[in-house]
Amino acid sequence: MHLFLTSFFVGFLVLSNIISVKLFDLWGLAILPAAAIVYVFTYPITDVIGEVYGKKAAQQTVKAGFIVQIFASIFILIAIYLPPAPFFADQDAFSAILGGSFRVIIASLTAYIVSQFLDVYIFHRLRSKHGSSKLWLRNNASTILSQLVDTTVFITVAFYGTMPTSALLALIATQYIFKVFVAIIDTPLVYFLVKKTKAAAKKEAETTSISA
């Protein structure tokens, strides 16, 4: 089950980087990157892994995601610069969609590594204080605080100097509000996944014990 969750985590990360170039209008309330609808679910996954398998397992998942993102960026860059076939007419579109800018890539990786490790740290500080109770508190507190850092770091590093400060702050605020909303409503999902993961982990342990 740990491998299954880590696979989803890494898959969501790579997917969010690919679709981040698309901006969508959220009912006229905010303009958000399409990545927002995917990336927000990486935090509950690390919370579930940390709750069931421990802090070290959650940190390893974060590290794995960081390494995969770097390799994905390298291979995408290689794919962009491979000479196109004579009949391939979409090279410019391919480069525009997948290329991104070096500054945005750095912003994404920086925000990711800082916020995800902060999420794991806050989650386990609260768990050491409350034990196995109050999962809702550590799930929401860790996610909401780390998402603030993620949003602020990414938008600041990626766009500072390219737009007025007021627009920059508005972008941070609208994206953060959306992420907080998702964090709150996904709490039942975290409880469900923790229950299922604990059951799977127990079954795996029993199977291993019998095999031994």
TrEMBL record:
It is found in: Cell membrane. The keyword Transmembrane applies. The chain crosses the membrane at residues 30-50, 62-82, 102-123, 144-161, 167-194. InterPro entries: YhhQ. Keywords: Cell membrane, Membrane, Transmembrane, Transmembrane helix, Transport. GO terms for molecular function: transmembrane transporter activity. It is a multi-pass membrane protein. The keyword ATP-binding does not apply. GO terms for cellular component: plasma membrane. HAMAP family: Q_prec_transport. Belongs to the vitamin uptake transporter (VUT/ECF) (TC 2.A.88) family. Q precursor transporter subfamily. Involved in the import of queuosine (Q) precursors, required for Q precursor salvage. This is Probable queuosine precursor transporter. The lineage of its organism: Bacteria, Bacillati, Bacillota, Bacilli, Bacillales.
